[in-house]
Amino acid sequence: MRIKTFGYFSREALISLRRNSWMVLASVGTVAVSLIIVGMSLITVMYANYVATYLESNVEIRVFLKTDVNEDNARALQDQIKSIPGVAKAEFINKDKALEDFRKDLGEQQNMIEALGGKNPLPHLYKVTTISPQDIVKVANKLQALQQTDQIKYGQGVVEKLFAITKWVRMVGLTVMVLLGLAAIFLIATTIRLTVFARRKEIQIMKILGATDWFIRWPFLMEGMILGFIGALIAVLIVDVSYAAFTDYILTELSFNIIGLNRDPRFLVSLGVALLGTGTFIGAIGSGISMRKFLRV
Amino acid sequence: MINFINVSMVYPNGTKALIDVSLRIAKGEFVFLVGPSGAGKSTLTKLIFREEQPTRGQILFNGKNISRMKPREVPYLRRSVGVIFQDFKLLPNKTVAENVAFALEVIEASRREIEKAVPDALERVGLAKKAGAMPSELSGGEQQRVGMARAIVNNPPLVIADEPTGNLDPDTSGEIMHLLQEINKCGTTVIMATHAKDIVDGMKKRVVALEKGRVVRDEERGGYGYED
Question: Span A60-154: which CATH code?
Fold first, then answer.
């Protein structure tokens, strides 16, 4: 394609976009909304997956011993725990270490420790990991049965819930995305159909003058792609701005990074590129459908 | 140049537009197609630039079989045929010069070619001064001359005119015919379908008469031959 011809196509495409401004608004809006949902669900699913994998690989049973068990007796339990079938590792943490860890976790909010008035309310504990996640319940029951055990905690239920949520988000996101994507394609096809109709006389003349089929098609294809691209651009802006606002809120208001929030600009750029690509593609499909049906060249 | 061999054309609705038409037109000829409405004049011209395809028979254009032509070759056939219409078919939102340039733009001619060829073509039809006017500001005859300039701007070997004077008064028609003759004198083959008895009788050119889809008469230096 010559550069001049490309200029001609773009000019023609823009002229006709101006002509059908209401349809343009509707189709751009639909593309934007559908891609906003795509973007948001992608982000949600990605984080849910991230958190789930993190939790799953870190599932450990925390065995809190009764406070009256002294350190020597507590240490003596190690072999007994290791002999339980399915146990991979049993790490003993004495109450001083536990308090120290807690202090580190708190970060800037050390005053919570000071509020304890120098006492250590924490018990000795074991962190037990199992060979496979399936063993957790079995091992946990055995650990609970030990007479020195006060209570045990493990995050298996949380992981399951998280996976359920991820699946749900993914399914709903996908359904809404597909439906809105189809609506966007339909609206773009209708917009292009109006354009083809408005210019049928011109198309007829072009054909008689010896324009090739693709010369006639390109402006319509470009028009659809421009519609999709503008819609995607709006979606990218909204997704990026609200994502930035969300992470800002989490990081400043809650002051801790609960799920390893990602401010990596590369992530947002690749998400943006993916959305723009999808939008342009949707536009191409929409005008393709319209051209097949209404532009018999 | 053009060779119709036993060409029949039946429209999907069953109308038999042409029945077993055989016709040869040589390069540089000026041919009138005459006959009553519905005789098949328009269909015949449309077959030449493949607006329609024959149901049966072959059509050769410069030795090339256009009835068996692949769709993607059709645009290149049309570039060697300039078509002039009864209703001019100008684009109302383009100026005279832009309408003529359009014929070159759609075949992706260079800017330099366009800048040279458009004024030349407008000069040939005597509209050099109206280059910037809109079609709506022109008379019918002037609009048809724009249509002619558009048809000849890329120097096609063949010009087809389908009732070019159908919407024009006799004086204006005379101008158009004069221009068509000029075009023909430069070596371009001209085929003109028409109802205009006076024009045909006055020109003494080859006349092909069609009736109900058949060629009923084909004479050199003929007359219209109907009493309308």
Answer: 3.30.70.3040
